[in-house]
Specification:
There is one protein chain. This protein has 392 residues and is an all-alpha fold. It has three domains: 40 residues, no CATH class; 181 residues, Tetratricopeptide repeat domain (Serine Threonine Protein Phosphatase 5, Tetratricopeptide repeat), CATH 1.25.40.10; 132 residues, no CATH class. Helix content is 71%, strand content 0%. It contains 19 helices and no strands. The longest helix is centred in the middle third of the chain and has 24 residues. The radius of gyration is 33 Å and the shape is elongated.
Length: 392
C-alpha cells in the first residue's frame, strides 16, 4: 500500500497500530522507512510517533529467545556416533590392508577417507565427536606418513607426521600421541636422523597407553642406537621392548601397521643383533621371526622381506654365501609394487657389503646384478616416474 500511495509504510500507521505491533515488526518497519521508494521525490520525512520503550519483560523474553536459538544450533551435529564408528572401522581396515596390499592404491584410499574426515571437522558437532574425529584424522595422517616414507618421500612423510601430531594434541588421545611419535621416529630413522628417531621413541614411551605401542617404540629406539654403533644402548632398548611386551595391557585400537606383534618385534631384534656384530643371535632371531610370522593371521610382506634380508646379512657375516643367496630368494621374487623403499635400502646395503667381502665370483656378481634390477623396478621408482593426476 505504501508503494501504491507513494509514501512510507510508517505513514500508514497510527499510534494504536504501533502499540499493537511486536518489537520485531517495529524494527523492520523503522529500518524500511529510511529507504527511499522508487520514483519517490526527495522530501523531508514526515514526523512519526516515537517507538515505545521495551519493557523489562520484553527484554527477558528476547534474551530467552536468543538462548533458545543458540541451543538449536549447538544441539545440531553434522556427524553421528554411528558415522564415527564407521570411519574408525574404515581406518582399521586401511591400516590392516597396508600390510598386504598395493601401497599406492592404499595411499589413494587413505587420502580420500582423510579428506572426508577433514570436511566433517570443518562443520559443527559435539565436542566429544570433534575429539573422536581428530583421533581418526590423526591415525589417517599417520598412515599417510608411514606410506610416504615407504615410497621414499621422506619430506612429505614429515609433513604428514606433523599434521598427525596436531590432531593427536587436539584430541588429547595418548595412544594416538604414542603411535604418531612412533611414525615420526620411523621417518627420522630412514632420513638418517638417528638422534631424532631416538628422541621421538623415548618421548612416545612416556604416555600411558594400551596395546603394543611401547614395544614398538623400544624396538625403534634399539634400531637407531644400533645404527649409531651404540651397542650397550641398543641391547638395553631390546630388553625394554621385551619388558613392554610382558607388561602390556589392552589391545591396539587400530592395529595393522599400528601394532607390533611378536614377529615384528623379533625382526627389530634381529636387525639390532646383526648390526652390533652378533650374527649367530641375529640368525636365531630371524628364524623365530619367520616362525611367528607364519602363524599370524596377516602375512606382512614388508616385514617378511626385511627378515629375509637380515638373515642373508647374518649368513654373509658368518661366511655362508650360499645361505645368503637362499635367504634372499623370496625377497627378489616380490612384485614391483611391493618393493618399498625400506626393502630396497636394506638390499642396497647388503649389496655393498657383499661387494666388499666377495668382490669376485659368479654368485656374488649375479646377486649384485639381481639387487640392482630389483631396486630399479620398485614402488618408489614407479612413483617418481609417474606423471601424477592429482589422485594420489
Amino acid at each position: 500500500m505504501a508503494e501504491v500511495f507513494g509514501c512510507r509504510a510508517t505513514d500508514l500507521l497510527d499510534l494504536a497500530d504501533r502499540r499493537s505491533l511486536s518489537e520485531a515488526d517495529l524494527r523492520v518497519l523503522n529500518s524500511q522507512s529510511t529507504v527511499a521508494l522508487p520514483g519517490a521525490s526527495a522530501k523531508a520525512p514526515l514526523p512519526t510517533a516515537p517507538s515505545p520503550a521495551p519493557t523489562s519483560s520484553d527484554l527477558v523474553r528476547l534474551a530467552a529467545d536468543e538462548s533458545a536459538t543458540w541451543a538449536q544450533w549447538a544441539e545440531a551435529s553434522n556427524v553421528g556416533d554411528i558415522a564415527i564408528e564407521q570411519l574408525t572401522a574404515e581406518t582399521r581396515a586401511l591400516a590392516a590392508d597396508y600390510l598386504v596390499s598395493h601401497p599406492v592404491e592404499l595411499f589413494v584410499r587413505t587420502r580420500t577417507l582423510r579428506d572426508r574426515v577433514f570436511a566433517l571437522l570443518e562443520g559443527h558437532q559435539y565436542p566429544r565427536q570433534s575429539a573422536d574425529l581428530y583421533v581418526v584424522a590423526g591415525y589417517l595422517c599417520g598412515l599417510l606418513a608411514w606410506m610416504s616414507s615407504d615410497l621414499g618421500q621422506l619430506r612429505d612423510a614429515d609433513t604428514q607426521g606433523r599434521t598427525a601430531w596436531l590432531c593427536a594434541e587436539l584430541s588429547g588421545h595418548d595412544d594416538l600421541r604414542a603411535w604418531v611419535l612412533s611414525t615420526r621416529s620411523k621417518v627420522a630413522f630412514w632420513d638418517g636422523r638417528m638422534q631424532d628417531a631416538i628422541n621421538f621413541a623415548r618421548r612416545g614411551s612416556t604416555y600411558r597407553t594400551t596395546g603394543s605401542v611401547k614395544v614398538m617404540l623400544a624396538c625403534q629406539e634399539a634400531d637407531a642406537w644400533s645404527e649409531l654403533g651404540a651397542v650397550d644402548e641398543a641391547l638395553a632398548a631390546v630388553g625394554l621392548a621385551e619388558d613392554a611386551r610382558n607388561t602390556a595391557v589392552g589391545e591396539d585400537d587400530i592395529g595393522g601397521i599400528f601394532a607390533c606383534p611378536p614377529a615384528r618385534q623379533e625382526n627389530y631384534a634381529a636387525a639390532v643383533q646383526q648390526r652390533v656384530g652378533q650374527a649367530p643371535n641375529a640368525l636365531r632371531a630371524t628364524e623365530n621371526a619367520l616362525a611367528l610370522l607364519a602363524v599370524q593371521p596377516v602375512q606382512a610382506y614388508g616385514t617378511e622381506a626385511q627378515i629375509h634380508i637380515i638373515q642373508a646379512a647374518a649368513h654373509l657375516a658368518t661366511g655362508e654365501a650360499e645361505g645368503a643367496l637362499e635367504a634372499l630368494a623370496p625377497v627378489l621374487s616380490l612384485p614391483p609394487d611391493h618393493r618399498l623403499a625400506t626393502v630396497t635400502h636394506r638390499l642396497k646395503e647388503l649389496g655393498a657389503d657383499m661387494s666388499r667381502k666377495y668382490s669376485a665370483g659368479t654368485a656374488a656378481v649375479g646377486l649384485r646384478a639381481a639387487i640392482e634390477a630389483f631396486c630399479a623396478d620398485s614402488a618408489p621408482r614407479h612413483l617418481a616416474l609417474s606423471p601424477g593426476d592429482g589422485s594420489a
